[in-house]
Amino acid sequence: MADKAGKGMFKNTAVRMIAALVAVGVFSGITLVFVYNYAMPKIQTNVKAETDRAIRNIFPGASRIESTREEDVSRVMDARGGLLGYAFTAEGNGYQGCIKLIAGVDAGLSGMKGMEVIESQETPGLGAEIAGGTFKEQFKGLSIVHPIEYVKNRKPQKPYQIEALTGATISSRAVVNILNRRIREIRGLLKGK
Amino acid sequence: MKDFIKGLWRQNPVFVQVLGMCPTLAVTTKALFGFSMGMATTFVVVSSGVMISAIRRFVPEQVRIPMFTVIIATFVTAADYFLKANFFQISKALGPYIPLIVVNCLILGRAEAFASKHGVLRSFLDALGMGLGFTCALIVLGAVRELLGAGTVFGCRVMWKGFTNWIVMLLPAGAFMTLGFLVGIFNIVDKRVKKGKKQGTAAADRR
Question: Hey, where are the domains in chain A?
Answer without folding.
Answer: 59-191
